[in-house]
Write a structure and sequence with these properties.
mainly alpha, single chain, two-stranded antiparallel ribbon, Four Helix Bundle (Hemerythrin (Met), subunit A), about 75% helix
C-alpha cells in the first residue's frame, strides 16, 4: 500500500478492511489493475506474436516456393520482413524444425526438408504409450490403410516392384522359425506394397506406423507357436502377393482384409485363451 495513503487513513482514525484497502488503493493509483492487465496483455501479445510469426513463416515458404534443400533467409532478414524480433523468428524456426518442415544446420541456417514420415511416426509411437491405445486400435488403423494400399498396388505396381515383393515373401518362408527376422521382412513387404501404390501419403502412413507395428507383428508371431499357425500366416502373405501379381485389385484388397482379420483373431484369441489355442479360437 502507498505510504501516504496509509498515513492519511491512520491520521483520520479510519481502519479499513484489507479488501477495502486494496480496492481504494486500486482506484487511487490504478497500479494493481495496470500491473495485471499489462502483464496479461504482454503475455498474450508474446504468444500471439509467436503464433503469427509461425503462420507467416509457413506462408512465406509456400509463397516463395522454397523446395527441399533450399536455405531460408537469415533470421535478421525474416525479422525485418515480418516486423518482429529475431528471437520471435528463432522460436518460429524451432517450431518448424520440431514439425519436420525445416532443419536447423549450423553455419548454414534453416534448410527446407523434404516430406517425410517422422512426425507421424512420433505420433503413433507416443500414442501407443501416452494415450494408452491398445494393439487392436493400431491394427484397425493399419487395416484401413493397407487394404486400400493392396488394391492400388495391384493396379499400379511395376514388374520390378513385384519382383522385390516376391523375393521378400520367399525370404519370409525361409525364416519361419525366426520370428524377429520374419517381422522385419513382413514390414518390408507391406512397405513395398505401399511404394507400389504411387501414393506418397499412403506410403508415409504405412512407414510412419512401422516401428509400432513391429511390436504387434512380433507379438503375433510369438503367439503362432505351432508350425500350422506359422504356415497359415505365411500362406496369407502369399495370397496377397498372388493377387497383386495378377493385377487383381479387388482380390488383393480381399486378401489383405483376410490377413488382418486373421491377425486380429490371433491377438484376441491368445489374449483370451493363450498362444497355442489361437487356432481353436478362430474356428
Amino acid at each position: 500500500m502507498d505510504r501516504r495513503i496509509r498515513d492519511n487513513w491512520q491520521d483520520s482514525g479510519i481502519v479499513p478492511s484489507s479488501s477495502d484497502a486494496v480496492n481504494l488503493f486500486d482506484r487511487l493509483t490504478g497500479w494493481r489493475g495496470a500491473f495485471i492487465v499489462t502483464g496479461m496483455f504482454e503475455k498474450l501479445s508474446r504468444e500471439t506474436l509467436g503464433e503469427r510469426a509461425l503462420t507467416s513463416l509457413t506462408g512465406y515458404i509456400k509463397q516463395h516456393e522454397y523446395k527441399p534443400g533450399m536455405v531460408l533467409p537469415a533470421e535478421a532478414t525474416l525479422a525485418a520482413e515480418f516486423g518482429v524480433s529475431r528471437q520471435v523468428v528463432r522460436e518460429a524456426l524451432r517450431s518448424l524444425a520440431g514439425r519436420g518442415i525445416v532443419e536447423i544446420v549450423n553455419g548454414k541456417g534453416a534448410v527446407v526438408r523434404s516430406v517425410h514420415s517422422e512426425p507421424l511416426m512420433t505420433y503413433f509411437q507416443w500414442s501407443m504409450h501416452a494415450a494408452q491405445s491398445n494393439l487392436l486400435d493400431l491394427m484397425e488403423v493399419r487395416r484401413g490403410i493397407e487394404v486400400e494400399s493392396a488394391r492400388l498396388a495391384a493396379a499400379r505396381r511395376t514388374s520390378g516392384e513385384l519382383t522385390r515383393m516376391t523375393e521378400t515373401v520367399a525370404a519370409m518362408r525361409l525364416h519361419l522359425d525366426h520370428p524377429d527376422t520374419v517381422a522385419d521382412l513382413d514390414l518390408q513387404f507391406h512397405l513395398a506394397i505401399a511404394t507400389a501404390t504411387r501414393n506418397a501419403m499412403l506410403h508415409h502412413l504405412v512407414q510412419s506406423i512401422r516401428d509400432a507395428s513391429k511390436d504387434v507383428i512380433r507379438l503375433g508371431l510369438r503367439y503362432r507357436q505351432t508350425a500350422r499357425q506359422r504356415e497359415r500366416g505365411q500362406h496369407l502373405h502369399e495370397e496377397i502377393l498372388a493377387e497383386i501379381g495378377a493385377s487383381n485389385a479387388d482380390g488383393a484388397a480381399r486378401a489383405m482384409t483376410v490377413h488382418f482379420e486373421d491377425a486380429v483373431d490371433v491377438l484376441v484369441g491368445c489374449a483370451t485363451h493363450g498362444g497355442a489355442n489361437a487356432d481353436a479360437h478362430r474356428r
